[in-house]
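Schema walk-through. Below, the input block comes first and the output block second. Nothing else is stored per chain. Lengths vary across the set, and this one has 488 residues.
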Amino acid sequence: MKKVVVTVLQNGAEMAFHVERGALLSTVLHRHGAHLDMPCGGKGTCKGCSVWVNGERCLACQTVVQGDSRVELSSPAQFRQIEAGELASMPLENPMFSRYGIAIDIGTTTICASLLDDGGAVNTVTRKNPQTSFGADVISRIEKALSGELEELSRCIRHALGEMIRELCAGHSISPDLVDAMVITGNTAMLYLLAGQNPKALSHAPFQADRLFGEWMDAKTLELPISPGAKVYLPRCMSAFVGGDITTAVTASGICNRNQTALLVDMGTNGEIVLWHRGVLTCCSTAAGPAFEGAGIAHGVYGIGGAVDRVWLEDGQIRCSTIGGGKAVGICGSGIVDSLAVMLRLGVVDETGAFTGEEDFFELQDGIGITGRDVRNIQLAKGSIRAGIETLLLISGMNASQVELLSIAGGFGRYLNLENAANIGLIPRELLGRSQSIGNAAHTGASLLLQNQGLVQVSEEIARRAHTVELAANPTFAENYIRHMLFE
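--- output ---
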């Protein structure tokens, strides 16, 4: 078949390559390292892969290359720095590394990596997980892996980690060869894809993972550009959908060391919830979806410059702030929660989520706002997380008033207004005075393991003793889910 030339322009750079006529443009771009946002997994519904082709706007996932083409991509968005958290550094007791170590959290949406020396973290970088090109959630990526794209999913995440490692080391003026140990945490699916493990076991009932990690791998096997022979530790997962990231988050939080009833909720693309009560650790995973990361929201974006991150009422007027203080380009998770709280307070929507007026759009700033469909997506996400909380409590014979501490983890959780979270029913109002945001606790836990090898055994014991509650067929969860889709 005759080949044609595709020329790609992005951020002032230009590259050209020959491809087969009839190839899907998104596939062509992926193969040549130009990863696009495709939260819908290439179904053409999210508009995330919008590009300019020969001067016309189109969706890369729906465009077939018919002839020589000139494709213009937007410049990559810069993420707001995800904080490692206050627990990132500790006195070195038995560090994994002798010179430098790197701790990484592979989130479904965002990757966070830190370089550490004997004084703690010296440099941190974040970037979007390139696997979002295959879908916003783990299910989409598992489906892609099973359809023959496992190698590409594995390759793109390893490539991204390699770039982050080089960036970290360059920022501290050292050679990557000086890095002699790493800890890479992430949910079970993310670790499967990193390791190149077939995720078939995660795709169907009874959803029993055939690899829970808690293992050491050679950096060379993972194609990571650090010291030859360096070891990389992948923390143990609790179950198929409660991964190593929750193990390291729980380790960092220290809830298992306290004589109190505590909840830990990680509000990412997957909503994981852990309850510590009388020496028993119970956990679950809820399919919250990517709405709190901005996906599936009309003007939703990640935590990038220009994202509306706070919304409030002042003298009867709607006020907004954006990351970086510039013109609004979209709304990120914390701004979405604030927006819903303001809409409820103004009576723009009722308790069912329906708009009370003729308009099905609530403008915040510069044409950026919330649609009726956005409200439904947020209801689904917040109903799922709240139902998971209530189900764990009920199974343990408790109610929210008996919980002494609620820790909210995750990059989104760091910036969440807890009062507004309670106002829309995302968290129980009884826990407001006992709640705290602990940031990216999964990443913090990874850095703690790196600084003290003794915590590896501690974290593995936490994962082994955890009891996972399956919510899919749980009638209590189903009942709570429907009830908590409503706004309180």
